[in-house]
Amino acid sequence: MPRLFVTADVGGPAHYHLGDEAMLEANLRMFRQLVPGIEFIVPSRDPVWTAHRYGVEGLPSPHLREAERGIGQRIQAQSADAATGPGMWAEWLGAETAQRVRD
What we know:
It is globular and about 40 Å long. It is built from five helices and three strands; from the N terminus they run βαβαβααα. By secondary structure, it is an alpha/beta fold. α2 links the parallel β2 (39-44) and β3 (57-60).
């Protein structure tokens, strides 16, 4: 069964962005029409709510805490290096999300 990792700025009722939620819903609807049986993985600030609302697999959204802000510069500086670039992105995404992207 085909799977698609969809990035959207969604976060449940506590962080609801009407436009972002509407775009996600429209994209999911269109892909479901084009590819029957497709499954979606969607990162969210409220993955349980997002999974229930849209019928997708919800994952926690990656985010940078104050102590991690330097990772962005490290990713940018090392992303051209094929040996270290992917590892830096995986570190920022978090183990669970990085594995779902790999899958």
